[in-house]
Amino acid sequence: MGGMVKGACAVALAVALCFVAVPGADAGQDLSGLQSPNDQGSSPAAKEAEKKRVAKKKASSKGKKKPGKESEAKKNQVFQLGQVEVFGNETESKNTTVNRVYSNQMLLLDTDNVATAANLVPGVTLSSNGQRNEENVYIRGFGPNEVPVFLDGVPIYDPYFGYPPLAEFTTYGFSEMVISKGFTSVLYGPNTMGGAINLITIKPQKKFECNGGSGYGSGDTYHGYMNFGTNQGKWYMEAGGAYENQGDFPLSSSFTPTQVQGEGARVNSGFDNWQGHITLGLTPNDTDQYAITFMRLDEQKEIPPYTGTDPNMRTMYWRWPSWDFQDIHFNSNTAVYNESYVKTTAFYDIYDNNLNSYTNENYNIIQSPPGYSFMSFYNDYSYGGSIEGGTKLVPHNDIQAAFHFKDDVHRQWETIPVQPVTQDQDRTYSWGLQDTVGFTKRLYSIMGVSYDCLQTVQAPGFPLYSDNTWNPQIGLFYKIGATGTLHVSVEDKSRLPTLWERYSYSLKPGLPNPGLRPEKATNWEVGYKGLIGGQLAVEATAFYDNVHDFILDVPTDVAAPGGGVYFENQNVGHIEFSGIELGLNGQILSHLKGGANYTYLQYVNVDNNLLITNLPHNKVYAYLQYFMPVKGWSMVGSVEYDSQRYSDASYAPAVATAFALVNFKEIYEIYPGVQLEAGVNNLFDKNWELEEGFPLAGRTFFFQMLFKS
Q1: Domain contains 109
Q2: Which domain holds residue 132?
């Protein structure tokens, strides 16, 4: 099947590039995906104030050209240079398969970190690695390694594990999150086998802008943030910061106490998180833009102990005294004769963290032996860049090509027990070519192919690694009516193994496997997006993914000291994912807006009986915002249901049971731009978990104030 797909895509791309003159085609028209047609956070009071402002502006500018409707991207201050699946200075992608979550929706639904914000999208499932106190997401069954994360189009998946823990990144400094599922542009670069997540920072639109908020909640939880910026025409500046602090969160009253976890507060579950950023940009003319961004994240966090039923699971007493991230990146876009462009990026990232494994439940003794008590230090960094060019000089074609380079360096050592510094280094290259061909005014195609290459530069004591993959893809898009688009796509994608998967001994105990091959998948998709009555955005998608050489952590026949066996990462999985996604979002009635989505995911390990973990078969998410007759008041309610999922266990299948969570809050808008909010999460105080043995928060309350200039 893979050979057929590669051949078909290669032939189609060659034909498109050779026979580029298609009569009647309009490759330059806006064929982008439909987003929610309204501002998720605006109230009747705000709308009335906006009407008066617009009326006044119209009166003062009588005779001038009528302005167009403000886009969601502009309202949310989207940093255009950070977008990937667009052509030059265009604001929208012609790939309608992507989903966007804007900053106003993140605030409305209180998704204060990237993982919970991504969970709003159909096909995305929130997951937890309880042993490390990390939250991430799965997209259509593909985990964090198969779905790389980008910041303004530059990769921020860490050098060793291949992914960042998404919950560490607060959402307050981002204008939007772009989630690609299945049909992901080759312009992103390597490893997008299951999709991509692009976090886009803020670009100010006015001479002065400011927004912020502060709140307090159960578990001695506090958060505060502020962003401010200025756009002076030829240059702009934006800066902001956020702080979150949490004590031990409260468990549900229905939680059954264990030897290591009593009633009330969850043991060792607090964190302290600082995040800040600044962007300086130049816009010398209407087409060109150059910007440099610096971001820093500092976090200290605790890791609650395992409370499940697996007798072979160790009780870990872990804390992260530091989990720090720094990024500096450069983005540019330069127009060439209005029909072409050149984009560049360059970045340097630092991942610096310290993990302490304590001997006792008081977290004040570290002794070795036993071997799982230690003080471990990672000091990793990545650097690289990309260059992308595009042209419309060939009629009815948007041709784009990109080259990516990334060096990943992992350095680790321990002080208890004393271990010297070791260093591993990987180097990755990727070339991509994409063509968007307009066949008619309604029918167009996106075709692409990329070549990814991974080379190990340094791995003391192990053979150096080298491998490469080809990734062809093709998608057909057909516009139905004024607002709808039907699409069908197929692609062969791959994911290169990480340094950790190839060279780590892990703590299971584990064996390194320097000979791992890339994972490969053939992804099929058919779907529709459109508007109902100009008010409700709808989407429906069916997908099938056939994955080969899937990397699974499997037991070996090698006996481990103290009993049990060693585990090893191996290419033993032939996995089939299939399912459907349904979504609805927008204005329902004059005083009621909301959205709902449903995901059904089926998966099977064809070749063996090893479990696929962290994936519920069914997920439902819905929310409603009701604007009350009393001026300035509104209510927001949301519900999420996840069916049961398997968790990793050493002796038998462990199950995290199904759960349903209900959240509610009341909003009072004092005057446009300033509002007070009070609410409750997990209203019915359910006992729930994303991974067996790691229960999450019961009923919690919060109060906050938000403002926006």
Answers
A1: yes
A2: 2-56+72-255+265-708
Q: Which residues pair with 352 in a beta bridge?
A: 324, 379
pTM across the whole model: 0.91
The string of pLDDT tens digits covering residues 134-157 is: 999 999 999 999 999 999 999 998
- 627: closest CA among 584, 588, 681, 682? 588
**What's 146's DSSP letter?**
G
Q: In sequence order, what are the residues at sequence separation of 6 or more whose Cβ sits closer than 8 angstroms to the Cβ of residue 325?
A: 156, 164, 168, 295, 296, 297, 349, 350, 351, 352
Look at the chain and report how many structural domains it folds into.
Answer: 1
The side-by-side arrangement of strands in the sheet containing 149-151 is 99-102, 176-181, 195-200, 149-151, 154-155
pLDDT at 24: 36
Is there a domain that residue 438 lies in?
A: yes
Q: Is the pLDDT of residue 53 over 80?
A: no
Tokens 């992260």 locate to 320
438 within 8 A of 25, measured Cβ to Cβ: yes
- The single residue listed with the structure tokens 């066996």 is 565
**CA 176, 182, 186, 188: dihedral to nearest 10 degrees?**
30
φ, ψ for residue 15 (rounded to 5)? -60, -45
Whether the CA torsion 81, 86, 88, 90 is positive or negative: it is: negative
- Can you spell out the DSSP letters for 258-293? -SS--SSBPTT--EEEEEEEEEEEE--SSS-EEEEE
